[in-house]
Batch of 4 targets.
Target 1
Amino acid sequence: MSTLSAELDLALDLARTAEAEILPRFRHVSVTEKPDGTEVTEADREAERVMREHLADARPDHAVLGEEFGESGPDDAHYRWVLDPVDGTAGFTIGVPLFGTLVALLADDEPVVGVIHFPAINETVYAARGEGCRFRTTDDEMTVTVDPVDALGDATVTSTALHSSDVTTAEGQIPYRLTDVVRQAGKFRFVTDCLQHALVARGRTHAAIDTLMRPWDVAALVPCVREAGGVAAPLDPTADDVVFGGSLVTASSDALLRAVRTRLQPTD
């Protein structure tokens, strides 16, 4: 078994460990607001806590970055785990079962392992560098690949929300031209959070846009899409760090990614 195979197994275990804290609280959880205005629940905090405890035992020499408890571990660690226990907290709090648990491993800040787990519907998309992308359900497990499409007019494109777009832009946000993509895509749909990128990896859609992302939102998605044959990059064409780039577009081909990213760029 390769090193990354062992780390992927651990990542899958971490997602299941988080699920044990998340599902009993689903539809029965109170919501509080963090200083940045985003929502958080006891499920977010307890799931990340148990994942961190598991990592402290299994990989004490690795660093950890999580949405709820920040950074921990050795400053010079080669490996860093990135955790988002409930990706899609806003939907989770109103009973939408499409939230995900994201677990990633970075090697010198390069994402090499990713798990996108959907506890409420028992589906998982997961990958390790060089080992392909897999999709697991209750009844089946298979290798998945993207559906390669080059032209925006032939593509099914998704986004999570309208923030940081030409529809609505808060102070400090970039007004990406989402309406142009809506008009020119073959099909356009709104799809929640990490699910839209999992659908690209599975070949069900062709491109997914997130105009505002944090590292824990991004890290697990990138290995899955890339190992399925797709591409992932920040919306800013000058940014060279996909995990810490602040936004994300995934696509089934380089040509489609370029077309989407070019169309999104705000006019002067």
Note: The two ends are 52 Å apart (CA to CA).
Target 2
Amino acid sequence: MKEPSSAHREAWPSQAADALRDLRGGMRLIVDAVRSGLDHVESVHGRVASVEPPVRGARVGRPTSGVGALVYRGLRGTTDLAGGALDLVLASFQAWLLDPQRERLPSEPMPSREAAVAMLNALLGDHLHRTENPLAIPLELRTRIAEARPRVLLLVHDIARSDLHWHLGPQDQAQALADALGSTPVYALYNSGRPVAATGRELAAELEVLLAHWRVPLQGVALLGHGMGGLVLRSALQQAQRAGMAWPAHVRQLVFLGTPHLGAAPSGDLLTRLGFGPVGALAPLARLGRRRSPGMRDFLEGRVAEEEPRAGVPSPPAPVVLPTGVPAYAIAGAIGDGLGDGLVTIESALGRHPTAGLDLLLPPEHRWVIQGVDHFGLLRSEAAFLKMRQWLST
């Protein structure tokens, strides 16, 4: 039998600790789901107790007092106690695995795990963040090469995706684009279930620190956002400029790839088209928030700023504004009836609208449509690669 390599033996504690961390996050979600289920049962119980005439001639006690209240309080307490005890055991084992004397090599990200967690964050990211669940993705800027070049290419992924999603085809198109431009690729990873404005604010702050300490003098920064990533970039730039940050002055180009500037067409099978599989299987998890996540709503509505609450009055479409002084470009895909890429219409991806204030006002030569390419196919399209290289080389 072949002996495991030294690297494999040294890396396994980190891999096992990562698996335990995910397990703890999953167990917390189960506990949250049980508590949500108890809330639903208690609500039904309360409605039944108020029905006239009483059920089979017997009055059902209200769950807010007496024995009913004790039962529901006990069930919640037992759920919390069992969940907390199991989390403590798993956390203790995780800490043992992460003992500095045991750790040798960092574990490499697993694409299947990263994809599953990214999808879960798109659906429940606000809940995961609010409850400090280990499965919540913190915003992070990653580089995969040690060399720092004078030019930087920042890549921001789409909803329900991770930074690994740029490598969809036989090669990493983002890395190839960075190499062609002589740039260092920097990949943003973020929780796409949180509001775009919150993510944009965090991205702006992280870029301020990263670029202020870049190891060589900067000659320019190019920004590339796919889908929701384009909304996040718009939000980050706007907030950074309002805050007087230094990094926007280094930005030379901004490219949108299938970004829903005017929103995405709402559809019942949105989750399926995003790669979640049958929506029904996720319904119990979706009920934790009893709604779409803020990130999904922002994607559907093309929102980049915080929504101002207006009681009982629908918010009007916000003006579509690009950051000042930054040349912007947009690429749209077209499949089927030729009206869009399967998720985002051509008009939305190009920021084209007949109403004043809702149009991006991009020059015609800064807008381009690729026929026969869907939303995620834009990432592996040779035509898109060549067009972006042309724009970003100017």
Note: Residues 8-101 form one domain.
Target 3
Amino acid sequence: MSQPSNRWINPDVVQYELWPGPGGYPWADTGVRLWTREAILRRIAADRLMCTWTTGGFAEPVDGNFTMATFSDDNGETWSKPAVWFRHSHRGLFTTELFVPRTDEIHAFFQTYTLGVWLTQLHSYRCLSTDGGHTWGNIHSIPGGIDNVWVNQGIVHSSGRWIIPVSWAELIGPEWCPPTVGRSSAQPVSGGKPLDMVELPWGSDEGLLYRAGGAWANRNHRYVIGVMISDDEGASFQLRGYLWRDRPCHFFEPKVVELSDGSLVMVTREWCDGWLWQSCSTDSGETWSPLERSTIPNPSSKVRLLRSRDGRIFLIHNPTGTDGTSRGRRNPLSLWVSDDDMLTWKVKMDLVVDPNASLNYPDGFIDEERREIHFAWEDGKRVYIMRVPMDIW
């Protein structure tokens, strides 16, 4: 499918549309609609790649969301027919991480949810493949009792420890019960005291319930980030870090990268502050410094941090801020490169520019042998794969 006429693509990169592709979207009776979100691209063997994305229903988050997947055995030249990969019977489902600690081993982390409570009442799970995604084991809870987190892109630290950033919501406000459509079956009570709750009229649509649920969540929850660590190759996990602030307060989707001395930097988006925030660890993720605002602008959008063997750090993101009260535009999609552990950014280069679209959620890996960065991104309707030379400048 051709690019939108007003979209500029850097001439030094290679890009193609992965989904839905030349045939367009499947018919509506498949449950797939004209939207897509948050593709994940991973190398799982020498020439074998895997890409997943969320779709289903009319948007996210709704109960009809599910994950699709496709595989390539020739380094992305051709792909298998996309198919539904994970779907829940009656809850929405979102795959957020494919952790590949070694060749052919994939730890798929995903969550289920219900419209109206979304981030605040996630059920978190893992599914494991040890043969490059050809077969999968049983879906199971994350070992260690971690059951209500949004899992993000993990790394294998130089110590061998697995470090996987996560975010979660904690109820702290008085409105214990989420919004309902129509009159609830009973008045919520705590210690004999009636509690306030939001009741929407019968016939309220999903969009209204989502907005009401989001407002309820923001009034009554603390948004926290940290990391899951494993020293036994995923047999168990423990939470470390407990990072939050009163203002700004809506932190989620953190990312982590190892620096040249073995220390760690975690960056995170915030709802409308206009900047990425960051924390550091000097003890392999055991403890973390308080969150501080970075100098990297961000319109509340997920970023991708990658570190190459030569020590350079690559940041793929939307380098635009906001007015501090509302989220800004996710345009352009750019590459920044640092050769001094993120103290400065030697390269700042646009990859895609489109003033009429959101250029969302880059996610991928570094191909050291081919000297390329491979990543997927989406514009809300289509998934694209891009290959960028590591020395593009």
Note: The helical segments are 206-220.
Target 4
Amino acid sequence: MTPDVARPIPPTLDVHLSGTELATALERDARAGLLASPKQLPPVYFYDDRGSRLFDEITRLPEYYPTRSERWILDAHAKDMALLSGADTLIELGAGTCEKSRVLLDAMQAVGLLSRYVPLDVSDTVLWEAATTLAEEYPGLAVHAVVGDFHRHLDQLPPGGRRLIAFLGGTIGNLGPAQRRRFLVDLDCTMDAEDRFLVGTDLVKDRDRLVRAYDDDAGVTAEFNKNVLSVLNRELGADFDPDRFDHVAVWNEEAQRIEMWLRSNAEQSIRVEGLDLDLVFGEGEAMLTEISTKFTPEGLAAELAECGFVVDAMWPSPGDDFLMTLCHPYC
């Protein structure tokens, strides 16, 4: 008899976020941010096709340690994470191309627990391509992709099984304190007692090294930052000239975070046709485009506890550059 061989299971796709909703969100966020003082834009709009390629290049730069540090932790401890979580379902928030997921999927498969993978992201095209590829690479794995926003659609994550919900890359640091609290409380409310949450966080370290990670010598991060202006030009009919803005990365000691700004190098007027909005940037006026909060293990544990989580384990990278934390909801 021929032994049974697992066959690929066709992936499924749930769509909770349409292209129209994304366009409406951009209009709303851009209007609110451009009229704020100081002006600001959410970092989610960095990631069009060009922005995603630039960020991929950033992760390979010598100055940018977070991606390498997180990957070291995953390579060294993914099996520990799988065993300690006891999960048969991996859910990844902001999954993108799902590249990092493979380390966790391999570990869960190796310990005999893997049955389902649920990637969530706002891009249906990228998500479907990744889901199709993974379904082929992991025969027998049920891939249930969800197009949605982790700020709004956590309650749409499919239930069942023991779930390991992963939020990788230090992305939680892009949220301000109030946003982080709301996200964590909302997540806690959607989790069962046996579910686990795995979060990657960048740690506080030498200030000069932190700044260099966001202001590389090759200027790739500067191009990445300025690319958001090209997004506004294309999507909202704006007439920003990226060359009239300078990339600035600074350490905010009080808030314990890196801030990325675009600073106008001349007084200029901007028209945003899609918003029927006329703006003036003074020479030297800066617009906030991203924050990246850095944590201490003690501070992170306290913040998680305030939002209803109990820490199961923490895994630092060499030199305490980066930290991955496994926790569960307090019940």
Note: The domain at 12-16+63-205+295-329 is CATH 3.40.50.150 (Rossmann fold).
